[in-house]
Specification:
single chain; alpha/beta
Length: about 290
């Protein structure tokens, strides 16, 4: 019986303690065979000492290290896709370099994908601290839900996705993220089935993730959203973006009424929706000015 070939892909800016924490957590997944691919966003190779440290952590796990000199996360992820198309892996995981996973994470996702007979499986990213602030970013989805997109911080997909030659968009990623959402929305539009699995990764929150970061991130979500609508829907993207801008604005005002009645809601939900509305409006104006 043919053994499935599985690879875990990690896009990293630098060699640091967060990346090492992820590798240590992956090494605890001893109930499944897999390879690891790390692609750094730089020309300069990591040091001999750093390579030896990776070898020590992963021990008997086969791994490879590669480099992408062009700046930007989309370029790094496209480099990963380029490498994968030259290899014969059946299942591909994407993980962010600043998260950790539990000892059964990989097998859980793989079993779920085969059980649900889908092509792509994504899951939640949970934060280890400041839960009140970051609960806004957690998607409220039920297990086994059919969904239209997932993020590259927690996803497994089948090799046949690679055969469609979909790329991560540099245009969308100019605001810092969103290219993974667009990538999987394109997969969904081609008929690939995407399901949600409550199998989390845990992101290590650093000191920069404060209120200022929260406000900026939500605003940029709006900016990115406008570009995604344009790439997906062409001339109809303007109308969809206008509707969603209005939707987020109304939703933010609605939270003023709901907050006293629902203890799970907080002021951050109101701010999040208001800023995403402003971001979409600004993003649409930028698109009009580009013409």
């Amino acid at each position: 019986m043919k053994k499935n070939k599985i690879i875990v892909c990690i896009c990293a800016r630098n060699f640091n303690v967060l990346l090492l924490s992820l590798l240590k957590s992956l090494a605890k997944n001893t109930n499944i065979n897999f390879d690891v691919l790390i692609v750094f966003n730089k020309f300069k190779k990591i040091t001999f000492f750093e390579m030896k440290l990776i070898q020590k952590i992963l021990r008997n796990i086969h791994f490879s290290v590669n480099y992408e000199g062009k700046k930007g996360i989309s370029n790094v992820r496209n480099k990963v896709l380029e490498i994968l198309r030259k290899n014969n892996y059946d299942y591909i995981f994407f993980l962010d370099d600043d998260c950790v996973v539990n000892h059964n994470f990989l097998k859980n996702h793989l079993n779920f994908l085969n059980k649900e007979k889908c092509d792509i499986v994504g899951g939640p990213q949970l934060y280890l601290s400041n839960k009140k602030l970051f609960r806004v970013f957690e998607r409220n989805l039920s297990n086994s839900n059919n969904i239209s997109w997932v993020s590259t911080n927690n996803v497994i997909f089948k090799r046949k996705i690679l055969l469609k030659n979909i790329e991560f968009s540099n245009r969308v990623s100019k605001y810092g993220f969103g290219e993974d959402q667009l990538f999987f929305l394109k997969c969904s539009s081609l008929g690939f089935k995407i399901r949600w699995n409550d199998n989390p990764v845990y992101e290590s929150v650093n000191k920069n993730m404060n209120l200022r970061w929260f406000l900026d991130r939500n605003y940029r979500y709006g900016l990115t959203g406008a570009l995604i609508e344009k790439e997906l829907c062409g001339k109809y993207g303007f109308l969809i973006n206008l509707f969603k801008s209005f939707y987020y604005l109304v939703k933010s005002n609605f939270y003023i009424i709901l907050m006293p009645l629902n203890p799970k809601l907080n002021f951050y939900f109101l701010l999040s929706n208001f800023l995403r509305s402003l971001g979409r409006i600004k993003g649409q104006l930028d698109l009009l000015n580009d013409k």
